[in-house]
Amino acid sequence: MLEARGLTKRYGAFLALDHVDFQVRRGEILGYLGPNGSGKSTTVNSVVGLIDPSAGSLWLDGRRMSQDPIAYKRRIGYVPEEPHLYTHLTATEYLMLVGRLRGLSERTLAEKVTALLHLLLLWESRYATMAAYSKGMRQRVLLAAALLHNPDLLVLDEPFAGLDVTAGLLFRTLLRLFVADDRMVLFSTHRFDIVEQLCSRVVILSGGHIVAEHEVASFRDAGSPSLEDVFVRATRHDDFTPVARQILDIMQLV
Asked: What is the full DSSP assignment across 57-89?
């Protein structure tokens, strides 16, 4: 289980995260939902070890991250929102580089890279540098890189951005099977539909605070509020109906 305990992050006078507590249980995809500026990216960057929290701690299966940060990071696969890659490399070259940094043997790495390129529909482009890849293709390369070392926890930041329908279906199926093997997924997103389709629980963040936490199944009960309704109330969003009507009125001006 991944646990965040009192996770706090300050940037000077700005408080990006304020004593955030949540858990990602084994066998679970946890949706992490919030508007821009709510602290989602700060949380993700803290969980994967890209930034250090100002206070609080992260625990994985009862061991504090700070006790052995290298061992902690070895158990995590990460797919960031923006697919920043060494685009002068081919996908094969990039994945071989990542696998070597992860300490995989050359034989194992060669087998895994070949299989993943086939299964993620990248084999036909294996000789092209990634500068020629679409955003969706780059996302698939990042997914392959995140899975190479057989992680216990996947941390995903808007991983469906740029994926076509086929790749999106494959990705959803893969994530369900991944957690069925008693692993964990932290899924940061803006999309209500993906959370409702994939996640078992959702945490809603606003202004650096957790403002709601729900079982996703509860939104499927007849007469229950939708996830979108709960999100709007919890984050105190304005009613955009008047603004939308004004936009439509402006469209009709001649």
From this structure: EEEETTEEGGG-HHHHHHTEEEE-SS----TTS
Instruction: Please report, for residues 7, 67, 149, 184, 238, the alpha-carbon distance to residue 153 in angstroms, rounded to integers and kept in the order given.
Output: 18, 18, 11, 5, 36
Distance CA 84, CA 106 (A): 25
Give the C-alpha separation, 212 to 236, whole Å: 12
For residues 70 and 172, give the distance between their C-alpha atoms in angstroms, rounded to a whole number.
29
115-129, 192-206, 219-233: the lowest-pLDDT one: 219-233
Tell me the per-residue pLDDT of 14-23, one tens digit each, with 9 for 90 and over: 999 999 999 9
User: Could you tell me the end-to-end alpha-carbon distance of the chain, in angstroms, rounded to an integer?
Assistant: 60
Q: Which CATH superfamily is domain 1-75+189-254 in?
A: P-loop containing nucleotide triphosphate hydrolases (3.40.50.300)
